[in-house]
Amino acid sequence: MRKPVVGVIGNSHRVENRFQVQMVGERNLRAVAEVSGGLPLMFAGSPDITDIAALLDTVDGIVLTGARANVHPTRFNVDPCEKHEPYDIHRDEVALALSVACVSRGIPLFGICRGLQEMNVAFGGSLHPEIREIPGRMNHRMPRLENGEIHPDPTVVFADRHDVALTPGGAFARLLGCEKIRVNSLHGQGILDPGKRVLIEGVAEDGTIEAIRIAEAPTFALGVQWHAEYDPQRNPINRKLFEAFGEAMVAKQRAAA
């Protein structure tokens, strides 16, 4: 049996402020290849060149990665604000439709950070553009130096920052074999209201939603707010998630055969 092919969504980016490109962080690609056992295949987050139906005929699973851009507020009936830019409206269009299509067709779907947010919006949920502005919430953004620059040490940036309480008996608790985990935190936007089929499976100590699954999905359809692609080769929590994603794709292949 061949390696599962994993579609990994691209993000719009401009190189040297001139050249428009689509890019994917290498950690995502390595997590898929080295832990899920799949062949990562980047696809463009641009609806004019990405045929979702053809894509899903080609891949065995989809990863919606984290990204710098926020989901555009008009996707959940909120007016946009300059301070919450940048946005990536083309990725929004692809990712939201793709989330629903994956669940409908029984194709394993793994949403990470922005990917969790996209899954929630795809099923009718809403987001808050800056979770730390809600009373009682912590700052979930990545660590920075006193001058405002991002901390240069990735082990600091991706260090575990807070606990997540998992739903007893839920999919995450069963998969991870525990009801409390500790995770990194590199996001500003977060879930406000869950979508109609979005089940909350993990919550941070300040009430921020950190783990979800899509109800009645026929296969793996999980989202995490933390960056699970960071060091899953050694991090046992992230490793189990990517391994389970890989197992779901293999099961899909066997069922099709």
The N- and C-terminal alpha carbons lie at a distance of: 9 Å
Q: Work out the strand percent.
A: 15-25%
Residue share in helix: 25-40%
Q: Rough shape? A: globular
Radius of gyration computed on alpha carbons: 17 Å
Major β-sheet, in short? 9 strands, mixed
Taken in chain order, the helices and strands follow as EEEHEHEHEHEHEHEEEEEH
Number of strands: 13
Pfam family, one: Peptidase_C26
Protein name: Gamma-glutamyl-gamma-aminobutyrate hydrolase family protein
Keywords: Hydrolase
GO molecular function: hydrolase activity
Question: Could you explain how this protein is built, in words?
Answer:
The protein is built from seven helices and 13 strands. It has 257 residues and is α/β, with parallel strands linked by helices. The strands form three sheets. A nine-stranded mixed beta sheet has the order 4-1-5-6-13-12-11-8-9, with helices on both faces. A hairpin with a 6-residue loop joins strand 12 and strand 13. Keywords: Hydrolase. It holds the Pfam family Peptidase_C26.
Can you give me a brief rundown of this structure?
Helices cover 29% and strands 24% of the residues. By secondary structure, the protein is an alpha/beta fold. The protein starts with a strand and ends with a helix.
Notable characteristics:
257 residues, alpha/beta, nine-stranded mixed beta sheet, 7 helices, 24% strand, Peptidase_C26, PuuD-like, Gamma-glutamyl-gamma-aminobutyrate hydrolase family protein, Class_I_gatase-like
